[in-house]
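Comment thread on ticket #2218

A.B. wrote:
> Attaching the input chain for the structure job we discussed in standup.
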Amino acid sequence: METSRNRYFLEIAFDGGAYHGWQVQANALTVQEVLDRALTTLLRQPTATVGCGRTDTGVHARQLFAHFDWVGTALPMDGRSFIHRLNALLPHDIAAKRLIAVAPDAHARFDAVSRAYEYHAHLRKDPFLHGRSWLLRDVPDVQAMNEAAKLLYGYEDFSCFSKSNTQVHTNICRITHAEWRWVGTDRLVFHISANRFLRNMVRAIVGTLMEIGRGEQPPRHMHTVIQSKDRSVAGASVPACGLYLSAVAYPFIDITV
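C.D. wrote:
> Ran it. Output below, let me know if you need it in another format.
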């Protein structure tokens, strides 16, 4: 009897503070390692996931998709039971949210059409934000930062914001949204969306915008940074604790569910 291979997308969220990013590493604990181990236990067959992308050490995710394959006629439980039982095997800082049956050739990384990140910063010491937001010493000029952020729309080569020695074949990205917004009077969130992101890209963009927000550079400095294609010209990377992968979109998944 021929066995079939069924592919599923799994939506998860996690607090990345205890992990060295998403992707499995030889000598460090990662989210993917913990998730694969839980899936293998639940499904009673070796199960490896493929994620929609990688997150760095300490970065969080409100929404991350990964796919895995089940060899057999059908999963031995319905989706609701699957999520409940998987969450019982996962630690408190990783949550399974949704299981979606997809076509056998659907791919969590290559089929994603857009990704969105948020960067959180706050201005007043708050123990409940420690490890989840960046505490700023001074109030930045948000208007100047948003003026500079709009300049990102006019470019596609973001080599200046890419971590060096990466294995990507192109530094071309299309940014569709970039904006700082106030949350109350003492919290700021940077929202950015694109078809793809480079390693360390968002943290480098935020670092560059913060230089402008502190008055160290004018908004037009963003032109100089991008045109240089040189990482050393951009601002320093901001702390990972404030960064969240917030949404990943696919043409065949309703992300509003």
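A.B. wrote:
> Thanks. Noting for the ticket: The beta strands are 5-14, 50-51, 60-71, 94-102, 114-122, 134-135, 175-183, 187-194, 243-249.
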